[in-house]
Amino acid sequence: MSRLSGKTVAVLATDGVEQVELFEPVKALKEAGATVEVVSPKEGEIQGFEHLTPSQKIPVDRALKGADASAYDALLLPGGVANPDQLRGSEEAVAFVRAFFDAGKPVAAICHAPWLLIDAGVAEGRTLTGYETIRTDLRNAGANVVNEAVAVDEGLVTSRCPDDIPAFNEKMIEEFAEGRHREQAQGAEGPQPTAH
Fold first, then answer.
1. What pTM was estimated for this model as a whole?
2. What is the CA radius of gyration of the chain?
3. What percentage of the chain has pLDDT greater than the value 90?
4. How far apart are CA 79 and CA 14, in angstroms?
5. Integer Cα distance of 6 and 33 in angstroms
6. How confident is the model at residue 181, as a pLDDT?
7. CA atoms lying within 13 Å on the CB side of residue 91
């Protein structure tokens, strides 16, 4: 089944990424027919982690400074603690994330990765989940936070932890296959009431 054939997905990550949250979704995306590129502020490779233990090195396909969000159909944000914490301190990384929302493109974020949504200014008013220790941050940013394996809101898929990966992957592929959702740019109109 090639539901994502012809689509290119960016995976934004850096050192400290929870590698199972990168490897498993990437495997699912490729099996669904997508082309996947790991994009990072670092060139060469990044250090994957298994919880707090350094594990495998992960090759970087494209340096963030040379990456154009318009070249991708969707964005995957894997978690880990250090990974999104470093990325949200990078104006370039935050702008890259924001560009997907401005274009109404689907985004999937797991574990601590929804931190990036706060810094990109896109959490407010959205229904999200995330790792338990970041849920207060999400609420403070104006999100409607739920404690569920996966939350879907207008093309934005979020999950809590590695245990949620099967549900996360299923919804991610579904939303990525649907493609663009309503524009998320500031000033975009919300859904219009339907006539009965």
1. 0.92
2. 15
3. 91
4. 10
5. 7
6. 78
7. 0
| Tokens standing for residue 81 | 């603690």
Q: What is the mean pLDDT of the chain?
A: 93
Per residue in 15-62, pLDDT (tens digit) is 999 999 999 999 999 999 999 999 999 999 999 999 999 999 999 999
Cβ-Cβ contacts under 8 Å for 186 (sequence gap 6 or more)? none
Alpha-carbon torsion, ordered 144, 115, 136, 158, to 10 deg: 40
Two tokens, residue 87:
């990325």
**Tens digit of each residue's pLDDT (9 = 90 or more) over 159-175:** 999 999 999 999 999 99
Please give the positions annotated as active site. Answer: 111-112
Instruction: Compute CA distances 161 → 82, 109, 164, 178, whole Å.
Output: 15, 10, 6, 24
**Angle at Cα 117 formed by Cα 111 and Cα 122, nearest 5°?**
145
Q: Which two three-digit tokens encode residue 154?
A: 């207008």
DSSP characters over 62-115: EEGGG--GGG-SEEEE---SHHHHHHTT-HHHHHHHHHHHHTT--EEEETTTHH
The amino acid that residue 155 corresponds to is G
